[in-house]
Amino acid sequence: MTSRHAGWLRAAITAALVIILVACPAWGSDGARATLIVFAYYAGLAQMWNLLAGYAGLVTFGQQLFIGIGGYTLAVGAERLGLGMWPSFALAAVVAGALAVPVGALTFRLKGGYFAVGSWLVAEVFRLAVGNSAYLGNASGMFIRPARTVDPWTVYYLAIGLLIALVALVVVTLRSRAGIALMAIRDAEDAAAGLGVHVWRLKLLAFVVAAAGTGLVAALITVQTPFIQPNAAFSIEWSASASFMVVVGGLGTVEGPLVGAAVYVVLQDMLGATGEIHLIVLGAVSVVVMLVAPRGITGFLRDRLGWTLFPVARHPPRVAAGSTTGSRAA
Amino acid sequence: MQLIETLINGCLLGGLYGLVGLGLSINFGTMRVVHLAHGDLIVLAAYFLVLVLVPAGIPPLAAAALVVPVMFGVGWALQHLIVQPSLGRRSDPGVGGGVLPPLIVTFGVSMVLQNVLLRYATADARTLQSSLASSGVTLGAITIPTVRLVDFGVGLACLGLLLLGLGRTALGRALRATSDDLDTARLLGIDPRRMYGLAAGISAATGGVAGVLLAATSTFYPSTGSEVLLVAFEVVVVGGLGSLVGTFLGGLLLASAQLLGAHFLGPSYALLTGHIVVLGVLVFRPQGLLPRTAP
């Protein structure tokens, strides 16, 4: 898909998807609504994880920190401080993003796999600290009473709107100079630094953006639940599901997390939301995908058929005829 | 007096923590992989001992001796079936800067192990019933559980064996050569796959020893694997990457921090105090206690 028609086709497919989602009250049941809300927040979570692992080269198992912080910000704002639901919702992004600055500054001292576990450790610190706080309801958590009166269709539009906004944010970021620099860092950090890319600053920027986005996803989850508890909110399972969705869908693509989230939600539906079998399957599938088709479902489609939905890949200006133009993201 | 007792206990428990960290350190030192299933391998060894070997009527000491070679085999097999194939994916530019594949597969193995244990061994608390756990050694006003002395002694012995094995034997030299300079090692006829399999096996064998000690020292659950992984990680970070002696000392520091936290703030603050000390080390001494010394 290199011609101008591809641009139109992509726009048409994207628009059709958005219209189908927005018109859900016309065709969907309550069950469809609930499933799509879950899909939207998992897709948002995966999109943010992919921004880190797929574009900034930051593989992390600590994103549950921002799920917990975003959720508790909403809970404290709406339930304890009486700031109102929607101001608290917005505040979740601010608090998560602000916390990401010191957390990133600290954990970036660790590289590669140690960074991944180091960020998990920071999330554990917050899980234990929140569990020891009587103000936050200790380990039994707290209800968010104002959230009970929110209309489910409001939550639905919030979820769809948030997902579209997060996808748009990623696409716009990747098409900007910062996006090129990020991908350069991922592909060759030393070379990027040598060319004058501010590696540390850009990684921190990506970390903060992903934290803020994850904080909003968390606020959405907490409005929908409407209950929060430290062991669930700061659970490693958030990072497990995020990495599953991104790896299975396709790392370093905008479509990948969306496809991965769809697979995740279908699997969850088939196997039950909690329980060991679900997690055994998730673990086993990520291992198999990583060994057999490490670029995931969308990577497979892109390599074999040249399909992409969002135009964020960059191609060298002149490519010899017959080579696989669409096979590599920047 | 109670404070001194806490400190001594912390240092002794630190022997087990150090051993837990050594396994992670060996894996990372040789192939630059942070093995996210290391904690679960340790817990797997503990379950194997408590649910399979001991009920089969094998005397505890013989059973413990059996766990270690079995775990060596498990680590070796896991390396060849899953971790090694993922290393080949590191050069794929579509797969995120190289660190991702081994992290994803080891994390996947961790999820599978933990939940298989949860499903088939249930979430019940387990421990190894032995005379070690209930007896103690009394020195004046201080009483130390015998099992903690064993933790420390065995941990220290494992450190000594590893230092000797890596420092003085031909195989150890080959392992270190693979770690220091892969291409040159290959030129000299060392097969890196064999070395990686060996390192993964040794790492899992230390995990087997740690699993036996864990079973004798405390109760454990399937989810203990994640806690143990974090302990291993913290010990390595505090000790300084690439130093086995540093890793061991990191274990002493972390265990002391946890027990002091429990002593002053209450038992629910033990883990939190340990975590905060580790983050403090990361702020003020990011290179750890003994970075990059021998071997």
Largest sheet: number of strands, sense, barrel closure of chain B: 2 strands, antiparallel
Order of helices and strands of chain B: HHHHHEEHHHHHHH
How much helix, percentage-wise, in residues of chain A? over 70%
Number of helices in the DSSP assignment of chain B: 12
Average pLDDT figure of chain A: 88
Largest sheet of chain A: 2 strands, antiparallel
Calculate Rg of chain B over CA atoms. 19 Å
Beta fraction of chain A: under 5%
Number of helices of chain A: 15
Residue stretches of chain B low in confidence (pLDDT < 50, at least 5 long) are none
How would you spell out the order of helices and strands of chain A?
HHHHHHEHHHHEHHHHH
The multimeric state of the shown protein is: heterodimer
* Strand fraction of chain B: under 5%
- End-to-end CA span of chain B: 38 Å
SS elements, strand count of chain A: 2
Structural class of chain A: mainly alpha
Lateral arrangement of strands in the main beta sheet of chain A: 1-2
**Based on helices, strands and strand pairing, what is the structural class of chain B?**
mainly alpha
Which shape of chain A, going by the Cα principal axes? globular
What's the arrangement of secondary structure elements?
The complex is a heterodimer of chains A (330) and B (295).
Chain A (H helix, E strand, L loop, with lengths): L3 H19 L1 H4 L2 H26 L8 H17 L4 H23 L4 H20 L10 E2 L8 H24 L1 H11 L1 H6 L4 H26 L2 E2 L1 H4 L3 H13 L5 H17 L4 H17 L3 H10 L25
Antiparallel strand pairs in A: 1-2
Helix pairs in contact in A: 3-7, 3-10, 3-12, 3-13, 4-5, 4-6, 4-10, 5-10, 7-8, 7-10, 8-10, 12-13, 12-14, 12-15, 13-15
Chain B lengths: L1 H30 L6 H16 L6 H28 L12 H21 L10 H4 L1 E4 L2 E4 H23 L1 H11 L1 H6 L4 H26 L6 H16 L4 H22 L4 H15 L11
Helix pairs in contact in B: 1-6, 1-9, 1-10, 1-11, 2-3, 2-4, 2-9, 2-10, 3-4, 3-9, 6-7, 6-9, 10-11, 10-12, 11-12
